[in-house]
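Structural prep section.
Before we set up the soaks we want a predicted structure of the protein with adenosine-5'-diphosphate in place, mainly to decide which crystallisation condition to try first. Input record follows.
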Amino acid sequence: MALGEFDLITRYFAQLTPAGADVVLGIGDDCALLQPATGELLAVSIDTLVEGRHFAVDADAAALGHKALAVGLSDLAAMGARPAWFTLALTLPRADADWLAGFASGLGALARRHGICLVGGDTTRGPLAVSIQVHGFVPPGEALRRDGARPGDLVYVTGTLGAAGLALLVRQGLYASSEHLPELFTRLDRPEARIEAGRQSRGLVSAAIDISDGLAADLGHVCAASGVGATLYLDQLPCSPGVREYVIDTGDSQLPLSAGDDYELCLCVPGDRQAEFERVAADWPHGATWVGTIDVGGGIKVIGTDGQGVAVGAAGFDHFAAP
Ligand code: ADP
Ligand code: MG
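Run finished without errors. Recording the tokens verbatim:
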């Protein structure tokens, strides 16, 4: 049975998430009507995932639904914002019921878990691409920005680094990992935004960013925005067992520094907030690890296990970089 545009919206998206009192009018009219939280700032971000560029042609639909929202939630996490609403622009080559059911299930499960409501979108035919715009709220003056890092601040990261990048190497046939495959693929295909860590970091950190392009590149953005430099210690970078095994196997110790798609948070903590930050972070299931220090001057210095400086390779992904 052919599925029309409006059947498709009604069947898969109209009831995807429960609407709270702040959704005066949801999917179905020309615009959604939303009641912003009084006295708070609206945090907005949009991300697009394109087939063949951000995900493989045969990517699992449910995982894609999850990831398309997770990357937006990660931006809200990095600002310390509370998720509220999102819109979905879906470009599909065909209306395939199985694919749509899978996509909606992955998307809906993550959205309901974070209490973020789908309030509208757009559906068009074309090469597969998914854009999600997320909206969240944060009290004025409390957002975690990139431009507040100061020399002497301590640099922390949540969770572990490099697993998503390693999973991509495995999927591309460039590395054969044994027992750690399921965990690696979960990190790549179903990243978890650190929403609670972001919110609990309000008032404790001077600057924050989510790690989507690799720690070195993303901390580089913080340094540029703040007018500071940073020193990172390679042997402090938190790695999962699969990544540790890869580093030992191949001698490529830079993967946790430069691989993208982890969606952990990088948090800069002033010295006088460190004890309280560590107390708060001790309750996070993924934890937070000290990895370096903010200093004067620009750029990122990396210190290897031998205490010597290390040249940093591939500094993050740039869609428009010269080949
Ligand atoms: P219009 O032509 O007025 O832009 P559309 O026909 O694009 O409206 O969409 C009809 C309704 O369905 C709107 O409320 C829109 O927000 C919603 N909608 C369309 N596509 C999606 C989607 N993929 N997910 C969620 N809501 C959608
Ligand atoms: Mg429209």
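Observations: The pocket of magnesium ion (ligand 2) is lined by residues 122 (CB under 6 Å).
Flagged for discussion at group meeting.
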